[in-house]
Amino acid sequence: MFPTVALNQDVFGLRFQNKALQLDLRLGALRLYRKHLVEQYSDRCAFWSLKDISAEQMSRTITIATDGADQEACLLFIFQIKVLSSLSVRIQYKVGNPVEPRGKVPSTTESQPSILLSGEQITSTKAQNSRGLVLRLHSAASHT
Amino acid sequence: MVLEVLMMTLEAVMSQCKESNQPCPDTLIVVSDNTVKEFKNSPCLTYLASLVNHGRLRFLGQAMNKGPGVFGSR
Asked: Are residues A86 and A66 in the same domain?
């Protein structure tokens, strides 16, 4: 039900599983961890409902979800639009000519930092592995 | 940079709607992390407010999630 448990365990440092700590500390860490999971799941439920609203043609709503903006490494990027069909649009941004690395992730030659934006074409795995700002666009045009 | 990407996204959506003779969406909802300062600074909010002021958008919402991201869930 919560696929990001492994990530969150890294954030909390598995304190509630550390038997060297006192029981009160472990219970407190476990309580905070469960609260964090509930808050994350509620956030995602809100995002899924917004996504469903934007999928309806009559709603005339665009939902733009962004992630990884604090890991952006470069300032310049290339703007590309790929039109897959008459009603489907795929927008993709790729970083070109990196000039000023910033943020936590340094730019390396092995994996070029990229900025991707598209509709349903981006899978969650690809979005997690990509470095840099990731935006996911949901509108009626991208769903039809 | 975040604002630039957001502007290009909206321009691309508007141009695509014009090409396909579809009505342009008048509601924009932006979901982002609450830790990113680029989404909370005054230029970004001013740009989003100007879209409403110039009649491009009728309603605008900005939501901040608390987790590390919304993409790892599916």
From this structure: yes
ipTM of the complex: 0.79
Helices (H), chain A: 5-12, 23-55, 124-129, 140-143
Mean per-residue pLDDT pooled into runs of 10, chain A (144 residues): 45 66 83 84 83 81 74 52 49 48 44 38 36 51 42
In a domain, B20, yes or no: no
- Interface residue A64 vs chain B (CB under 8 A): yes
Best of A48, A60, A72 to disrupt the B interface by mutation (most B CBs within 10 Å)?
A60
Predicted TM-score (pTM) of the model is 0.56
Structure tokens at A69: 């903006």
Which structural domain, as residue segments, surrounds residue A12? Answer: 5-53
Provide the 8-state DSSP code for A81.
E
